[in-house]
């Protein structure tokens, strides 16, 4: 607020300058630790909070406007009060943390200036004050690639596909590859990378719309809806009469068990995720592990973060493949922070078709 004293001794208080420097900051709040499958009511969209559109002097922080936010299955793990993990739990009463694409609006950090675009860890709110920059990258807008792809194809899920397939699966031309959750953020790129290498690729997924996408848009050799297969072992025998060399496992559970039985000698299983087990406090257990011995299978869990040294090569390779039209990428875009709870919860029933993203604001 600015005071102006007139000749007659009266003071006029001008508030507009201060008002312009703050804004409403809608947030998505994590209500508290949960058990079981996440529900929309576990998150609360809260309006009314206001934020100063200035990075505090001397803080080294910068303020961003969030443009796109990413919904990722690993975030379910942060909703448990479990500290023995590679990532700490969310803080009840605070906004959800997650990957986003954001624009810097004010900065007290010489490395980030207003107008810069960044991609990395932010919070589910309209504006965020960023104090820690280790998990953020500056990005440039490329008119040929949607900005939101920084959360999918060119972001953490795309990198997971690239590192997991190339480094963990040791793939070779002509091999037989099974991918689960195949139309999702990770799976769709795994399958396309495998096809580019000359593998035979079959995807499993949870709807006929996804089967159609895999066969007709993403170039998989074949695809099936696991929900319509009463016997997964029999289904895999039908799709892979000669057996599976590589299983890229995004789901765990029954599909992993059935894949173990159908692996070929010296097969590889990349254990990327266990989304089918996420809501079980008592996991169902895997019964067919003896196949690891008889077929000399290598089964390896991995975290994409172990391979970050490959990130520059990944970006170069995948951007080039995308620009040449050799890969495509499917996104499921929800509009507005209000839709964030349902978008997130939808991951665990397979409602998302492609990489689930939330558009919070448009880039100007
Ligand atoms: P996504 O596939 O885009 O979305 C999740 C999908 O999982 C849903 O669309 C659904 O697809 C499937 N799903 C949900 N519940 C299921 C169930 N009970 N059984 C079988 N499938 C189920 O997710 P994403 O981002 O690509 O992630 C895929 C997996 O990779 C997740 O397990 C995630 O945790 C893991 N991940 C691991 C790393 C790492 O570093 N290791 C990094 C990123 C992601 P359908 O309709 O096809 O069932």
Describe the structure.
- With 364 residues, the chain is of the alpha/beta class.
- The chain folds into 2 domains: 22-152 and 330-359, Quinone Oxidoreductase, Chain A, domain 1 (Alpha-Beta Complex), CATH 3.90.180.10; 156-307, Rossmann fold.
- The chain is 22% helix and 27% strand.
- Strands 7, 8, 9, 10, 11, 18 and 19 form a 7-stranded mixed sheet that branches. Strands 14-13-12-15-16-17 form a 6-stranded parallel sheet, sandwiched between helices.
- Strand 1 (2-5) and strand 2 form a beta hairpin.
- Helix 5 crosses helix 6 (253-262).
- The longest helix has 13 residues, at 156-168.
- It binds NADP nicotinamide-adenine-dinucleotide phosphate.
- NADP nicotinamide-adenine-dinucleotide phosphate is lined by residues 72-74, 156-157, 160, 181, 183-187, 205-207, 210, 250-251, 272-276, 302-304, 347-348, 350, 352, 355.
The CATH superfamily of the largest domain is identified as Medium-chain alcohol dehydrogenases, catalytic domain
Mean pLDDT: 93
What class would the helix/strand composition place it in?
alpha/beta
| Small molecules (ligands, ions, cofactors) in the structure | NADP nicotinamide-adenine-dinucleotide phosphate
Which word captures the global form? globular
Overall helicity: 10-25%
Secondary-structure element order, N to C = EEHEEEEEEEEEHEHEHEHEHEHEHEHE
N/C terminus separation? 29 Å
Beta fraction of the residues? 25-35%
Low-confidence stretches: 1-19
DSSP summary, beta strand count? 19
Query: CATH topology of the largest domain, which one?
Result: Quinone Oxidoreductase, Chain A, domain 1
CATH class of the largest domain: Alpha Beta
What is the domain tally? 2
The DSSP helix count reads: 9
Largest sheet: 7 strands, mixed
